[in-house]
Amino acid sequence: MIAGNGYSLVKIWYALLRTFYTKANTRFMKKIYQYCLLILSLVSSQVLANSAEQQPLASKSLMLDVLSLDADTLIAAGERGHIIRSSDGVNWQQQEVPTQSTITKLFFIDENIGWAVGHDSLILKTQDGGITWQLQNFKPDLQRPLFDVYFVDENQGIAVGAYGFMYRTTNGGDTWQREHHLELLNEDDQYYLEDLKQEDPEFYQEEIASILPHFNSLTMHQGVLYLAGEVGLMAKSNDFGRNWQLMDEIYIGSFFDIKATNNNVLIAAGLRGNLFYRAAEQANWQRADVDSIALLNNIVTTDTGRLFVLGNAGVILSSDDGQQFTLTTQADGKALMAGVWFKNQLVVASENGMKILDL
Question: How many whole angstroms separate alpha carbon 120 and alpha carbon 157?
Answer without folding.
Answer: 19
